[in-house]
Amino acid sequence: MTSAPPVALLDSLVRRLGRERVLDDPSELLVYSSDGSVLHDSQPAAVVFPTSTEEVVAVVDACRAERRPFVARGAGTGLSGGAMALDGGVVIAMNRMDRIVSLDPADRRARVQPGVRNLAVSEAAARHGLFYAPDPSSQAVCTLGGNVAHNSGGPHTLKYGVTVNHVRGLQLVTPLGEVLEVGGPERPGYDLLALLTGAEGTLGIVTAIDVALRRLPESVRTVLAAFPDTDGASAAVSSIIASGLLPAALEMLDDVVVEALQAAFGLAFPPGAGALLLVESDGPEPGLEQEALDIERLCLRHGAIQVRRAADAAERAEIWAARKKAFGALGRITRHYATQDGVIPRTRLPEMLAFVRAAGRRHGLRIANVFHAGDGNLHPCILFDGDDAGVRALVQRAGAEILEHCLRLGGSLSGEHGVGVEKREAMALLFAPDDLTAMRRLREALDPEGLCNPGKVLPLGAACSEPDPRRKQVAS
Amino acid sequence: MRPAGAGDPPLHAPGTAEEFSQLLAASAGKKLLPIGRGTRDLPGALPGPVDGLLSTRRLDRVLHYEPGDLVLTAEAGAGLLEIDELLAEHGQWLPLQPYRRRGTLGGLFASAADSLLELSCGSARDLLLGARVAHGDGLLARARGRVVKNVAGYDLPRLMVGSIGTLGVLLEVTLKLAPRPKVHASAVLGFDTPADALLAAERVRQGPDEPAFVAVFAGACTPQLMLGFDGGSARVAGCRQRAVAMASRVGASGTLLLDGEDDRALRARLDDPPAGLQAPASDGCVLRCSCRPSRVGALLRELLDAARRAGVSVRTDVRPGLGLLFVGLAAGDEAALDAATLQLLGLARAHGHAVLLSAPPRLRAAPDTVWGPPPPDLVLMQRVRRALDPGGVFAGGRGVGGL
After folding, report:
1. Whole-prediction pTM
2. A253, A411, A412, B50: which sits with the fewest CB atoms below 10 Å from its CB?
3. pLDDT digits (tens, 9 = 90+) for A284-310
4. Interface check A352 vs B, CB under 8 A
5. Strands A90-93 and A46-48
6. In this structure, are A72 and A104 located in the same domain?
């Protein structure tokens, strides 16, 4: 890749967007050198701030003319290095495309620009009695564009699904600079929305998003159960699912998190609480009380030492605060933490948590667990203090071991944080070479010039040459 | 359905994924048409001559089922009936055509078949977690997996939903299951006009009762609103009572509450909308129209008026909250049927999209007649097709824009 200062590129960008919307001073570029992941960084050649689809096209054209890679970036809350520009590429910051273009309560649809914050959609919809269901923990800051890139979920995924289940249309600037309206499930043809959602910005840049809104549920029951340990809480999760209940959310917090919440925010939990299980049911009022009673009974049967039900909205917010403040609390008891994202079949939860604890002991690291128990999506959070390379290497090794164990149990590398840079080589552990060939063919078909967020998602080792499957078939 | 003009092409039914791969790798220059067990009407425009049919009927094993995970992996030729019976033993189900239960898993996904419970349980694309596919040159690829949340790699499985066998043959599918509701019940309300039935449906939609399905029948019958409820007994009874009360305020002429076998019979009739509307004689058409939910009433009125003026018999099954209208047309003579079908397709396409789901072969020759004009993102679809079926082995020309 070019190493000389990209004078021609900068000139071209400034000409198209104006000086004030192109950053190229190294001190200003620093903040765009990494995302929420503490373990990766790469300085871009420039950062640009388009305000319209036409300007995104202009930037893509400028990059193509100079053969420079480009990558769209939302709020930068991603945790896999997906929004970093590798090899002196250009970061296209979408933050100024932050308008809710339309909100149509009759059709329960909204069209938003990609820089709109997730929570802003639900806030705007609330006065019509509607909400946008995917609710990642970072929803107050993360953007819809980033949510589409990572097919983001959130605590309420269990009942409501993830981003792909709620996106109805996209406006896409293709890697070749074309602007296309990509249709939804009602439109005949291939389901390109499914392909683009979760593609981590490698197949084009989304410049508008049509989302489905839902009616706010009539009633909600929120229960917080304290258990001596995660085994009891896991058993309760299994029995809730086995009984045929499908709560809206099933979130678990382990002893390290409980301790951090007490130390950092003075939240009070019963003595001996080594795991918390947050269970929320919502829907029509008829039958909901019985569902909450059943959940409480199942928690107690599996050894809960305390079961607390939110009596009103304020108490519900208080219970959720424990979940939402978990990472903040960890941040107060440690200098750094690295959050992992792995998925396992729900029934393997106890053995996976035992493995995580053992990995922590083996490497002398504290590991906290806050996760979506209902769908087996774990977020082990490795706490560390040192800034030296040795500690970071240890953290990465522990994280890799945890991920590999997720795969051994039949799980996946990422539930919602994405593959990005962090896990691209691990993709070769999850998928066979032919699996990756199919993905690479798709990518090359849609991004033939290889400039749209390259170096992400697929292992670099596999990018060199495509094996001839026919030859292999004959050989096998 | 046999492709017209294809004579009697040989039927290939490989017994393993590897055999599929070898057959495809050795088929360069040929045209093959994937089918499941051949139960469903082949969707889309009619294929030209093909060199062979590819059936998955020998791939019918369940590969992995862990009830506690609510996930099942099976070969794509497995029958919906057999899968449903297995799941029922564990108090679970796959809520996609769970009452009709015909055909294969692969056929259900490849055709993106509509299902009664889409409003409450999602559509085929929402419940497919992973897949193994044989692509055009024999490449065997898996994508996604056995967990409900997964963003590792591109979502090839969902891309296969509705691709009618033009991108690959589904060999294995991994499904997201749901707890089988303990109680099912429904209600049928009669109204004086289709508009009243739709208004009542809208009241229910605005209300809190989260019905499992909402359907409106209009055309050659008394306008009817059908509401279904699933869940525990308290929820089903309570929600049905409230929703029926809300809908009745519009002026229902009569109400039937259906439970047990009666409820099940109604659902079986609604589960596969085109099947429910097909004319008893073979000469009829079924249209699938989609539009914004707020336009359903206007579109229905236009369609019924046009059918009446054209002198053809029309029945409609509307799913208001989803913005879907299924329209069944029948007529004594071919010319009248063809003219009315084309006219109604045109009306519906002015409001949104319309697909000819079922029609005599003479109306199914051109993709644009069947699917409507090529969509603006066709160029991306063509790139996807070239990537996954590089040699064009799968019989094309059947999908939208001639895919």
Report:
1. 0.95
2. B50
3. 999 999 999 999 999 999 999 999 999
4. no
5. parallel
6. no
